[in-house]
Design brief:
Number of helices: 7
Largest sheet: 3 strands, mixed
Strand content: 15-25%
Order of helices and strands: EHEEEHEEEHEEEHEHEEHEHE
CATH architecture: 5-stranded Propeller
Structural class: alpha/beta
Number of domains: 1
Radius of gyration: 17 Å
Bound molecules: arginine
Length: 262
Amino acid sequence: MNTHLMVSDAEHFRIDYEINPYMDTGIQPDAVAAVAEHDTIVEAHRRAGRTVERMPSDPGCPDMVFTANAALVRRGRAVLGRPPAPRADEMAHYRRWLEGRGIEVLDAPYAFSGQGDALPCGEILLAGYGWRTDPRMHEFLGERLGYDVVPLRTVDRRWYDLDLAVAVIGNPHTLAWCPEALDRPSRRRIRNLGLELIEVSVDEAERFALNLISDGDTVTMTEGAPRLAATLRGRGLRVVELPTTELAKGGGGVRCTALTLE
Ligand code: ARG
């Protein structure tokens, strides 16, 4: 899992609007540091043996570094994201890129945060809702992409996308999650999946601890969450911790910067 990724770049990354509580137009990323942060993440994927394809960002799309929101892709088919209005212009680029790879692209009939709110775990799809994804998307995703959908509602705008609150570590056996980020029925649903669960504190989750990419052997994550990193190492995983302070100004981390293609 997560062995074939599509990324963009941080060349045009800016905070031009505020669509999540981490964004503040008064606090801009350092342009040079942001590009370096992103390049380091891409390099870490390659070192872990993952295939990374790059799609250049559009100068008019300051959030395009966060390609996870582009779509959810499975077996040659993609459901395109349907993000808040300020990010709408990105979608034509993603559509063209995906179609250029022979991937069939379906439009989302309702608001949909792409892979930001849709975490595949084997045949299961952990599907977030409450902020950026309309719950009516769940049936659509289940039908069109062939998943058993587990709906999970996050309780606060800090978790505007599910990939800030839940992370798939080992396919299909282990999840890391922040229980406080989910409502009670969702917590129950996670606990009933029969998976191994690693709990992450609110303070580490707020520092984008769960916004990580795991291929089951190597976990690429922020350096802001030493407790989770230690837990994962204790389970025999290779853990690569990277700076994500600039991306954090846009409300994202490692996971947000890559769309999984396989
Ligand atoms: N500024 C971006 C937005 O608000 C960040 C997206 C982060 N992506 C994610 N998968 N959580 O849309």
